[in-house]
Q: What sequence folds into this?
């Protein structure tokens, strides 16, 4: 019985493979905001890749998440990529100032590519110069077919 159990464990151990995470075919840019001491829909995330814009609102009061999805135009995607200097972005600290310490709005920009996954959090008055234009552009993106305020 012990030898059968040992054989079974050995076979299972060597037959299991750790799956690799799929590699991204294109970069993803996430722009999110949240209020620290807020009730209701206090968290929003806009995720953009080369084909889609996905807007998500999350509530902290048990209300269901709200989503909108819309295609991205080639020009819109190219304009965003032109504003992104991956090396300068990667060199920024994860937190600038003290986001959320004074119950203010916290902004987070995250960039994920095959070679980089980095997020930077800050308050509106602390936008780093290196990503000022990217921030301004992301904050103005809207989804035309989205009924979510």
A:
């Amino acid at each position: 019985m012990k030898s059968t159990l040992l054989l079974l464990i050995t076979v299972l151990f060597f037959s299991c493979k750790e799956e690799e995470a799929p590699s991204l075919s294109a970069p993803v840019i996430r722009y999110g905001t949240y209020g620290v001491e807020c009730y209701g829909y206090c968290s929003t995330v806009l995720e953009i890749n080369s084909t889609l814009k996905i807007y998500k609102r999350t509530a902290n009061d048990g209300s269901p998440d709200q989503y909108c999805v819309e295609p991205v135009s080639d020009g819109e995607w190219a304009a965003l990529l032109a504003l992104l200097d991956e090396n300068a972005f990667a060199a920024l600290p994860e937190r600038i100032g003290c986001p959320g310490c004074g119950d203010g709005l916290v902004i987070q920009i995250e960039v994920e590519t095959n070679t980089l996954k980095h997020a930077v959090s800050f308050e509106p008055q602390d936008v780093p110069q290196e990503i000022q234009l990217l921030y301004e552009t992301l904050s103005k993106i809207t989804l035309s077919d989205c009924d979510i305020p």
Observations:
- The beta strands are 28-35, 41-48, 52-59, 66-71, 105-112, 117-122.
- Residues 20 and 65 are 29 Å apart (CA to CA).
